[in-house]
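F.,

This is the one I mentioned.
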């Protein structure tokens, strides 16, 4: 899984570089550079990062079920300030 992490980092660098070059360079296609950089962030980097971070997580741990609500109430009772 190290490959997806490296690819995500390279895509992040490429997108940020494209955005920065779009702002810095004074060429006819500078707005396209900014646009492609933003598209790269939202269509490539963010989904890959989300997949990488959530691949081994159980979605039921983050849902508000009766059991999880009971656990949260117990944790609040056990906390002392």
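My design for it:
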């Amino acid at each position: 899984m190290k490959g997806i992490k490296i690819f995500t980092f390279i895509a992040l660098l490429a997108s940020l570089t494209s955005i920065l070059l779009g702002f810095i360079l004074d060429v006819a296609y500078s707005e396209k550079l900014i646009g492609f950089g933003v598209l790269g962030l939202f269509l490539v980097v963010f989904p890959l990062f989300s997949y990488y971070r959530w691949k081994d997580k159980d979605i039921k741990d983050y849902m508000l079920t009766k059991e999880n609500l009971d656990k949260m109430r117990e944790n609040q009772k056990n906390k002392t300030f």
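Residues 2-78 form one domain.

Talk soon.
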